[in-house]
């Protein structure tokens, strides 16, 4: 069976170094807000090309804390793509803000920048972009709109660690960015983890305090904060893996290129990229009319797949107030999309087998 994602194999490449770090943490007995969190925060900010990074408990919290730190709440609107993982939208509604959904482009699966301006109202406070499947959003028009209407640009970079747009990495393409280190992400820890990156010192300090009980120093609480911290074990694991992220992403690019050049089946629509550097292929999503049939066929031939995602946010029970809204492009994507195996530990034989099986699909 070719697994959709063999996490054991992904992480076992770093076993010796990870064992050493965990032993060190056991030996020194310091588990939170210590040297590993400090080091990883610095290294990750460096990697993204920002001045600051704060480790937090998960990706949802990262987005949540950014919105909270900007002080956005009830009555404020935040523009967001209609096709994304639910966390992006939850971060907005958890703060009492109104998510304003915008259709994606069918070619990039990312928010369509040409459809944003018509959704801007006097209540709009920010545009939250999502670099979906690992492809950096083409930011030029979004920057122009943000400037024209005085809006913040918040990035959901949970799927796009290391992707580059115009020489800059995700995490540095907006005013602030949220990352997730959920185990299956391109940079993943062994539990939950996340980070906020920014060049804005004030925002950095506020997010850092909010994530630690609203405290800027011990037992001194300046905000009604929360508990959202990246623990030392996760930070240490991430710091072991970070130096390998670029080469892992290159491997994903290689596999993606091979798929795109060799899968030749009129029933399968392949994903596109506007620039090889802009995409880190967190997910290699193809579209096909009879998705369930295709999924079963692959399963029967020993290939595991996944669906990101079967139901668009506006059709989820949690947002029943949107049940009558219609986003046809987003719905079309959710109806037909299916994700093929892609990861830095997939072997050449496995990649060739995937192509062969797909080319024989009728
Ligand atoms: C994974 C993910 C998140 C949430 O990250 P968690 O660490 O699971 O909270 C947010 N947005 C997107 C697009 C994601 O893929």
Write the layout of secondary structure elements.
Blueprint: H1 7-12, H2 15-28, H3 35-48, E1 52-56, H4 59-70, E2 77-81, H5 86-94, E3 98-102, E4 124-130, H6 140-149, E5 152-156, E6 164-165, E7 168-169, E8 176-180, E9 194-198, H7 201-210, E10 215-217, E11 220-221, H8 232-241, H9 245-262, E12 284-287, H10 291-300, H11 328-336, E13 337-340, H12 348-359
Parallel strand pairs: 2-3, 2-4, 4-5, 5-8
Antiparallel strand pairs: 1-9, 6-7, 8-9, 10-11, 12-13
The structure holds pyridoxal-5'-phosphate (PLP).
Describe the structure.
The longest helix has 18 residues, at about 245-260. The protein contains twelve helices and 13 strands. The radius of gyration is 20 Å and the shape is globular. Helix 2 runs antiparallel to helix 8. The protein has about 350 residues and is α/β, with parallel strands linked by helices. The two termini are about 20 Å apart. The structure holds pyridoxal-5'-phosphate.
Number of strands: 13
Strand content: 5-15%
Please state the CA-atom Rg, rounded to the nearest Å.
20 Å
Helix content: 25-40%
Q: Strands across the major sheet, in which order?
A: 1-9-8-5-4-2-3
* Attached small molecules: pyridoxal-5'-phosphate
User: What is the first-to-last residue Cα distance?
Assistant: 21 Å
Helical run tally? 12
List unreliable stretches of 5+ residues.
none
Envelope shape: globular
């Amino acid at each position: 069976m070719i697994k959709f994602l063999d996490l054991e194999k992904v992480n076992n490449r770093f076993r010796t170094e990870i064992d050493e770090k965990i032993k060190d943490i056991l030996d020194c007995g310091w588990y939170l807000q210590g040297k590993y969190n400090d080091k990883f925060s610095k290294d990750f900010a460096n990697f993204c090309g920002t001045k600051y990074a704060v480790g937090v408990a998960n990706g949802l919290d990262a987005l949540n804390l950014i919105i909270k730190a900007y002080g956005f709440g009830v009555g404020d609107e935040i523009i967001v793509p209609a096709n994304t993982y639910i966390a992006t939208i939850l971060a907005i509604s958890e703060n009492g803000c109104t998510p304003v959904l915008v259709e994606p482009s069918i070619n990039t699966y990312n928010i369509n920048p040409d459809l944003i301006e018509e959704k801007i109202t006097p209540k709009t406070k920010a545009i939250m972009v999502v670099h979906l499947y690992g492809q950096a959003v083409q930011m030029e028009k979004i920057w122009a709109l943000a400037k024209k209407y005085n809006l913040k640009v918040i990035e959901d970079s949970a799927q796009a660690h290391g992707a580059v747009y115009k020489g800059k990495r995700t995490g540095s393409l907006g005013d602030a960015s949220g990352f997730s280190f959920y185990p299956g992400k391109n940079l993943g820890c062994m539990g939950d983890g996340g980070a906020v990156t920014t060049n804005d010192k004030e925002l950095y300090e506020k997010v850092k305090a909010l994530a630690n009980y609203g405290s800027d120093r011990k037992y001194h609480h300046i905000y009604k904060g929360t508990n959202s911290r990246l623990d030392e074990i996760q930070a240490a694991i991430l710091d072991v893996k970070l130096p390998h992220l670029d080469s892992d992403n290159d491997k994903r690019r290689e596999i993606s290129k091979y798929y795109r050049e060799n899968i030749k089946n009129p029933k399968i629509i392949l994903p596109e990229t506007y620039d090889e550097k802009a995409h880190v292929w967190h997910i290699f999503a193809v579209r096909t009319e009879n998705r369930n049939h295709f999924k079963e066929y692959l399963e029967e031939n020993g290939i595991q797949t996944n669906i990101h995602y079967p139901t668009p946010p506006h059709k989820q029970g949690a947002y029943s107030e949107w049940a009558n809204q219609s986003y046809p492009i987003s719905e079309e994507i959710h109806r037909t999309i299916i994700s093929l195996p892609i990861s830095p530990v997939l072997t050449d034989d496995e990649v060739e087998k995937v192509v062969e099986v797909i080319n024989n699909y009728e």
